[in-house]
Design goal:
globular, 189 residues
Amino acid sequence: MIVGIVAMIFAKLTHQISHFFKAQISYPPLRPAIGGVIVALTVWAIGSTKYIGLGIPTIVDAFYTQLPPWDFAAKIGLTALTLGAGFKGGEVTPLFFIGATLGNALSLILGLPAPLLAGMGFVGVFGGAANTPIAATLMGIELFGLESGVFVAIACVMSYLFSGDAGIYSSQRLGAGKYHFMPTKKGSN
C-alpha cells in the first residue's frame, strides 16, 4: 500500500509542479532554466549530488546496506521538480531509486529483509506510477529471479491499486477507473 501511495505522490507532484510552472512562466524555454537553477541551489544547499542523476550506486546500496530513511523523499522532490519544470525523460530510473530506497527504509519499520523490500519497492513504485503492474512484475522476476515472483507480484498489483488514477505519462488514458465503485472522468490520466 505504501509503495502505491508513494507512486501516486510522485505522479501527482510532478503534474502539479508542471501546471505551476506553466501558469507562472509563459515562455516555455525559461521553465527548465528556472527549474535547473532551483535544483542547482538545492543541491548546493544540501551539499550532495546523491539525489540528482540516475543514482545507480544508491539503488545498488539499497540492497546491501541501510540507507538514510529520507533518501526516497529527497529523490521524489528533486525529480518531480526537474520533470515538472520541463526537462523531459528520466522517470524510470529515478522511480527505481525511489522504490529501492523506500523498501530499504521500510525494512527499519517492518523488520523484513532490506534486499527483499528494496526489490519489491524497486518494481512496485514503477508499476504503480506507470500503471503497468504486469510488466513491472515480469521485470521483477527477470531481475530478481523466479523465487521473488510472488513478492514482486504482490508489490506491483497493490501499488497499482493504491496509486489511484494518476500516472507519470500524461498521454496515458484510462478507459475505466481502477475502482468500479468510484467514478472517474473518462480519458483522465
